[in-house]
Amino acid sequence: MIKQELGLKQQQKLSPLQIQTIKLIELPVQELEQRIRKELEENPVLDDNPPEKSEDSDEETPRDISLSDIDEDDPIPAYKLRQNNYGKDERPQYNTFSVKQSFTQSLMEQLGFRNLTEHQRAVATFIIGSLDEDGYLRRDLESLVDDLAFRANIETDGEEVEQMLRIIQDFEPAGVGARDLRECLLIQLRGMKPAPDVENARRIVTDYFQEFSNRHFQKIMAKMGIGEAEMKAAMARIVRLNPSPGGQVDDSYNDQAQQIVPDFVLTLDDGELHLTMPRFSIPEIRVNKKYADILLEAAGSTERQKREAATFVKQKMDSAKWFVEALKQRHNTLLSTMQAIVDYQHDYFLDGDEANLRPMVLKDIAEKTGFDISTISRVVNSKYIETHFGIFPLKYFFSEGLENQEGEEVSTRELKKVLQECVDKEDKHKPLTDDQLVEEMSRRGYKVARRTIAKYRDQLGIAKARLRRQL
Questions:
Q1: Which of 130, 225, 268, 377 is the most exposed place for a label (fewest CB within 10 A)?
Q2: Under a CB-based contact definition with an 8 Å cutoff, are residues 455 and 438 in contact?
Q3: Distance (Å, rounded) from C-alpha 35 to C-alpha 41?
Q4: Predicted pLDDT at 318
Q5: Which residues of the chain have a pLDDT value below 70?
Q6: Cβ contacts of residue 16 below 8 Å, gap of 6+?
Q7: Which run of H or of E encompasses 343?
Q8: d(Cα 167, Cα 189) in Å, to the nearest integer?
């Protein structure tokens, strides 16, 4: 039996202005600059030059001209009516070089000095492209053989792939091309000049890597027949090795990729906080008046070319006005949101003391500003503020809260700070277990469950007690 139902569904459709505003809110200041430059290049109606002063002030604002004012008897070419300003994600790809790109480029340059056949070079190139950002090859050789055949149309076998991998493992930085941490450390140790500490380190990594990972130092010393001094020398050699060779390439591109430009600047003058949004190299843009004149001139015209030009200009005028208005709304939204955060965390921003950082979630700022939580999330993402005590991502100021033993709500950031202090002051020969950390936190006035301690410890990058034990 077929059943039919009739219902009403309410659906909100975003306007072009709203779409523009949402996309611009997400962009940090560096990407916003690139986005504005791109729009200036693509839309001739936009102008970043100062407006020319006119005796008639009314001429400073372009008049709105409707296409209905223009004779539409003759058909207009389809490409003139095609709207391509929306529908795709216009977030620009930032014109910087990441560590991964420069790292790959460095390996390819070293490959160029090797005397290889064209076929071998193609296999080695594919392997280099398969390395992850840490410089490791995380895939087995048989999978690479299959990928070379199906994706690159290169016939090879596991033996040849391993032969090319060995060549790559000779490249700088040392340890590149390893398939796991153990192999990465061994590659670096094999390249060092022979010495007692190097030889002991190589034996530890080769034969006792599991015991080394678990910090069972006494067991290693007993099996190798070495003393504590020799063990410490070997450990010192191992800990100086680079576990992430792909992330350590130093080049001129990296400076540009790592640069942070704050979206906000907060200053403290005579005990008063002042928030600003510096423009840096972001140009002020406006709609160029001369294009409105083209529409005025074409209104009522019978010339087909003028009508086509007017149609094109009208589309660009609308796009330009939406873009300029979206920039204004972005500015107001970001400034209102950041001001609400500063007001909420006022005591913290006075001196930067984390003890004064209140528990705060997106909903708190959404309620203060009247914006949606999704809007607050877009504002906070990838944005930075410069204060008199450092530069911080906006996400830094958000955290959940827990109660201390007096019933007062404290931020998770304060709890993590105290936890870190507990670990820093512990006896490294007998590091504190999670249960002992719960007791230590309790003595300091914080009631925290064991599972919470484990969670915060992982977030702080603090290893378990047995892995923190030292000789």
A1: 225
A2: no
A3: 10
A4: 79
A5: 1-14, 48-102, 247-259, 279-289, 291-307, 309-310, 400-411
A6: 85, 86, 318, 319, 322
A7: helix 304-344
A8: 17
Query: What six digits make up the tokens of 285?
Result: 């843009």
CA angle, corner 293, sides to 292 and 297, nearest 5?
A: 120
The confidence score (pLDDT) of residue 404 equals 56
CA distance 42 to 85: 10
Among 401, 403, 399, smallest CA distance to 447 is for 403
pLDDT at 204: 93
DSSP conformational letter for 60: G
Report which of 142, 151, 98, 86 is spatially closest to residue 122, judged by C-alpha positions: 151
What SS3 state is found at 426?
A: coil
Helix ranges restricted to H, 68-133: 78-81, 99-111, 118-129
- Report pLDDT for 87: 36
Buried-exposed string 358-382: b where 16+ CB fall within 10 A, e elsewhere: bbbebebbbebbebeeebbbbbbeb
> In 3-state terms, the chain is what percent helix, strand and coil (to 5)?
55, 5, 40
Is the bond leading into 16 cis (omega within 30 degrees of zero)?
Answer: no
Q: What confidence tens digit (pLDDT) does each residue in 206-249 have? A: 999 988 888 888 899 999 999 999 998 998 898 888 888 886 54
Q: How far apart are CA 125 and CA 18, in angstroms?
A: 45
Cα first-last separation, the chain: 78
CA distance readout (Å), 215 to 209, 226, 237, 460: 10, 16, 15, 20
| pTM reported for the whole predicted model | 0.48
| 36-65 CB burial, b ≥16 within 10 A, e <16 | bbebbeebebbbeeeeeeeeeeeeeebeeb
CA 8 to chain centre: 42
Are 383 and 264 in contact, with CB atoms under 8 Å apart?
A: yes
Residue 101's pLDDT is 46
In sequence order, which residues have a C-beta less than 8 Å from that of residue 232 and are 6 or more positions away?
Answer: 471
How far apart, in Å, are the Cα atoms of 45 and each of 41, 256, 344? 10, 31, 41
Residue 267: strand pairing partners = 274
